[in-house]
Prior knowledge:
- The complex is a heterodimer of chains A (370) and B (546).
- By secondary structure, chain A is of the alpha+beta class.
- Chain A has a single domain (3-369), classed as Glutamine Phosphoribosylpyrophosphate, subunit 1, domain 1 (4-Layer Sandwich), CATH 3.60.20.
- Chain A has helices at 15-23, 60-72, 115-136, 159-165, 216-223, 238-250, 257-262, 267-270, 276-285, 333-339; strands spanning 3-13, 33-41, 52-58, 76-81, 98-105, 141-148, 150-156, 177-184, 200-202, 205-211, 295-300, 306-310, 319-323, 326-330, 355-359, 365-369.
- The longest helix of chain A is centred in the middle third of the chain and has 22 residues, at 115-136.
- Chain B folds into 2 domains: 11-46 and 67-113, Alpha-Beta Plaits; 131-544, Alpha-Beta Barrel (TIM Barrel), CATH 3.20.20.70.
- Chain B has helices at residues 30-34, 85-89, 105-108, 205-220, 237-240, 259-265, 299-305, 324-338, 355-363, 387-392, 398-411, 431-440, 450-456, 483-486, 491-513, 534-540; strands spanning 16-20, 40-47, 50-52, 59-61, 65-72, 95-99, 133-135, 157-160, 170-172, 178-180, 187-190, 193-195, 227-229, 248-252, 275-279, 291-292, 312-313, 345-350, 370-376, 419-422, 445-448, 529-531, 543-544.
- Chain B has an 8-stranded parallel barrel, surrounded by 6 helices.
- The longest helix of chain B has 23 residues, at 491-513.
- The interface between A and B is large, with 39 and 42 residues.
- Chain B: GO terms for molecular function: 4 iron, 4 sulfur cluster binding; glutamate synthase (NADPH) activity; metal ion binding.
- Chain B: This is glutamate synthase (NADPH).
- Chain B: Its EC number is 1.4.1.13.
Amino acid sequence: MCRIGAIKSKDFVHPSTALCLMQSQQKGHDNSGFAMVMQDLGGVFADYKDKPLMSYACTDAGVKIVEDFMREKGFSLAFHWSPKKNDATGLDIELMQHYHFENWDYPKLMANAPQAEKEELLTGIRLELRRVLEDAGDKIGFVYSFWPDVLTLKEIGNPKDIGTYFDLWNKNDKLMAKIITVQCRQNTNYDIVRYAAHPFFNQGYTVLANGENTFYVKNKECQKNLHRSYIGFESDSQCFLYTLHYVHRQLKWPLTYFKHVITPLPFDQIETRDDAQVLLSIRQSLPHLEINGPNTIIGVLPDGTMINTCDSKKLRPVVIGREGDTVALSSEVCGLNDIMPNRDASKDIYTNERETVIINNDLEVLRCKQ
Amino acid sequence: MQTVKINDITPNDLPWTIEWSEDKCKMCGSCTAACTFGAIEAGVEGRGVTFSEGVAPNPQAAAKRAVPVIRQVADIKHRCTGCGMCEKVCPNRAIRPVRNEDNRWNFVNRSAGMPKRGGRSNLGVEDRTLDKIVVGRISQMTDPSLDALRHTFDMRAPFGRILPPEQLPLSVGPDGTLQMDKPLPTVNWIYPLVFSDMSIGALSTRCWEAISMATAYLNEECGIPIRMCSGEGGMPVSLLKSELLKYMILQIASGHFGWNRIIKAMPDMVADPAGIIIKIGQGAKPGDGGLLMAQKVAKHIQAIRGVPKSDLLSPPNHQGLYSIEESVQKMFLSLNAAFKFRVPVAIKTSATASSVSIYNNLLRDPYNIVGGYLIDGIQGGTGAANEISLDHTGHPVVSKVRDCYNAAVAQGRQGQIPLWAAGGIGLTGNAAADAFKVICLGANGVFVSKILLQLMGCVGNDRGRCNACNTGLCPAGLTTQEKKLVKRLDIDKAAQNIVDYVLAFDSEMKKMMAPIGNSSLPVGRSDALVSTDEAVANKLGIQYAC
Lengths: 370, 546
């Protein structure tokens, strides 16, 4: 199964820390892929926080399509960065020709538009660009995210080699972030494509999961009608992102109700609650967003809040540890031991089956019972 | 010269013939007394007798003797239905009905110039769609199965209108929690198996009482929130005024039988019924009305229905209702208003090529009060419908449920109008497997009825055995109001059989939910199913496996 991890810190963290977090868990995944989302960026992107950052991987033809498309839409390139690549022989990685991370200036007409309008524009551009790339041919290019202050890297291959290729093992000050979510992949249950790797990102929300979503078909059938950005579904874990996005952003329900949607309380327990009416109404209106498989879910909200929750039977492991100004989440405790050797392990949190753990930007850890 | 009798009906023209063994018969008369159809009679036949006298064999022909015999009555009205009561009561197993493959039934049974009633679907039980579907997605390693005995399961299905999430009257309160600003349409969460609509006129009082006893027992002793639909025709006033009314779903059909009494009882009701079903049509005889034969209209039925002893016809449509959009909604409004919007109101139609259109209309319900859609398929129904309707009209339910669910999915409205399926669920005795598969295809739950009769002792089947529910002569005491026959039914045993079956059903459902990793009902989990028939797989949109 996949191994997942997340780091949230008051200081900037280099991806090498995330790689170390995952390295000791290598027996728990099959070296088939690696993905990472970095938010609240420092390093070379520190000066461009307000400009949407596009993360994509392309062939030559794909790059031309992206550039032409963006210019046609009125965007102008503000900053371009590609990681230093290490073309050592023998690396287990399915390479694309180009890996681009580009900050774009909004079209002039949109420069002073309200935030909500800008967000819709960015979402539309990403969706349209993805479709254009897919229409242009198989595996021409993949656009992962287009959002201010968010960088996404996904690749098929051995995570260790992917780290080597992108020079992620060498700690430097170019690529830094305060939030890093990361996954080392087990082959996905559905199509093995780059998009299938989580973390998944949509409109400021990031989600990654360790587990199986047995309600994938139900979730997908329901979600595809809920929002235009709910597309793809290359992985059963993608559904968790859309549910979080839907509950929190679209329905504007408090964060703790995400848990009530994905793993509602049994009817006999609902009946004993003071808020039975509310919980019952949620359960009966959103049964198709329930999950029933084993899962650990890590999510990041647009404001940087990080959450963790599990399936209602607690079938998948996760542990949360803290050292100094950094909190980290990991599928296995050995990951925490590697990057936080001096932490007080007795204070580690093993999120339980009815709990949502919320970590705010002051790194306060809140444990909410469902 | 004597007339040649070649045009007369003989037992060989009838679907069943009686096999009687003179050697074993002790002429006790049990069989003729038990045969409610008058298909056998005691008679006398002239026989030549050979006898022997003396110490050594010395056969001699004697004069003819009159010998008592049991013989089959060879006329259409008193034909043998194959019910086998004679065999059941015979102490020596000297008599039994035998299916007559060479019968001329289809040619002789229309002799009175009227369509014949009584029968079952001719679709048979061998070629069912549900039997071509198996559960294929079994959770194993990364996605563990549940333990059917140790895990808890939420075995509940909605009955009532469910609002889409964005229409929920929720707001964030000062303490950061969601609060409900106004009441929602009533939704009752009930067991996904409902005892379907068979009226107190169609069934014997004891039979109906046995089902209602089983319902109450399952609810109060077993914790299974099962519901029973009254069928058209109302129910005893004592029950209407009882707390137990909460386990009943009242039905209003086109004849509106019994509703006068129900309405009069409303001020004295101490509990709300679990729901109301407006029956537009039924799968056994789609487009045809219900008919309670005059011979079954006993005094108590006359009292409940408020009509004298005569054939009671429920017309094939609700008079005055011309479209789903207007008329049904008006009924829904008035019925909802009658119970002050505390009781969900659902609608039942037979499965038809237009089921999806109906469901689409219901999904657009602007009043948010359509509490459910029950589709009744061709394989339902007992023996009281016209044979011609049973055999040649109707629509299987499985693909219609799937089509309706898919239509809802396409609109993002799945689950908002609960979808219930009936008609052939449990036809082979495996109701849990059937229910599980239909639920995976999109239903929220199922209605069953015929299987209840069979649990209580009905001997009829879909191959033409008995099926005389319309005659008022039910040999098992189930579908008759004849006092002597009704007494044949052991009410406690009948209720016990139903309770036992539902308990087994509950275990079996969990045994099927466990391997796919579901602790709640697998509504719409079509990915859990595969079909061994490519056409079925394609039609239902599930995997094909061979």
